[in-house]
Amino acid sequence: MIGPVLVYALGFGFAALGIALAMNLWRLFKGPGVADRILALDTMVINAIGIIVLAGIANGQATAFEAAMLLAMVGFVGTVAYCKFLLRGDIIE
Amino acid sequence: MSGGVSLPEILVSALIVLGGSFALIGSWGLVRLPSLMERLHGPTKATTLGLGGMLVGSVAFFQLVKGEWTTHELLVSLFLFVTAPIAANMIAKVHLHQLRLGKQPGPAGQPAAPRDDSEWATYESPKAGTPGCFEDE
């Protein structure tokens, strides 16, 4: 079902997202401020969604995209909640 | 087809390679750029665009190769394209707030304190007449 070109493309995509996750992890540890760490976590969530999408293509089943949708929502809510807590000292006022 | 490679497969492969490249470039910008306001550009633009490319590639794969019509990817990409600017705005506000509190040095020093009639604030409660103030004037 999956031809040789697509296999190479998927391999490239997985490798690129893995390297991207490693670089985000470096920024998460190194980042001088707390805003850098929030940004690194947000980017890690986006890259994890990309890995789930590529895994869905590689497995040929569309059930993985519910997980991608959930991860997108939870990642956004987590980022906003952490920013809100740092800005206002409270999440829901 | 020459070599047994079909046209939809080439299309899906190109979209996946493009998306992976943009995601990698975005994360490289996160590592490489010097200050947070510049670092925000990488993930919010390049990584979101890369993920959009991969999601469109996934839609094309399931439609053209498998013959199934899926809309979850479009929903995910719509959600991401709406939420990425909001998250970036919140992170920039946290950065400005930390700068104003003096918790980390900025390249241009500490930003000026807001005027009393300023339109936006990160810490104090909303002033009368600005959006977000629900008290009667």
Description of the structure:
The complex is a heterodimer of chains A (93) and B (137). With 93 residues, chain A is an all-alpha fold. Chain A has one domain (4-87): Helix Hairpins (Orthogonal Bundle), CATH 1.10.287. Chain A has 3 helices and no strands. Chain A is elongated, with a radius of gyration of 16 Å. Chain A starts with a helix and ends in a 5-residue tail after the last helix. The model of chain B has no long low-confidence stretch (mean pLDDT 80). Chain B contains 4 helices and no strands. With 137 residues, chain B is mostly helical. In chain B, helix 1 (7-32) packs antiparallel against helix 3 and helix 3 runs antiparallel to helix 4. Chain B has one domain (2-101). At the A-B interface, helix 1, helix 2 and helix 3 of A face helix 1, helix 3 and helix 4 of B.
Helix count of chain B, per DSSP? 4
Which value, in Å, is the CA radius of gyration of chain A?
16 Å
Counting DSSP H or I runs of 4 or more residues, the number of helices of chain A is 3
Could you list the spans of chain B in which at least 5 consecutive residues all have pLDDT below 50?
none
CATH topology of chain A: Helix Hairpins
- What is the helix fraction of residues of chain A, given as a range? over 70%
**Class by SSE composition of chain A:** mainly alpha
Q: Count the strands of chain B?
A: 0
In CATH, the architecture of chain A is: Orthogonal Bundle
Assembly classification: heterodimer
pLDDT average of chain A, as an integer? 89
Question: Structural class given helices, strands, pairing of chain B?
Answer: mainly alpha
Main β sheet profile of chain A? none
- Percent of residues in beta strands of chain B: under 5%
User: How far from one another are the termini of chain A?
Assistant: 53 Å
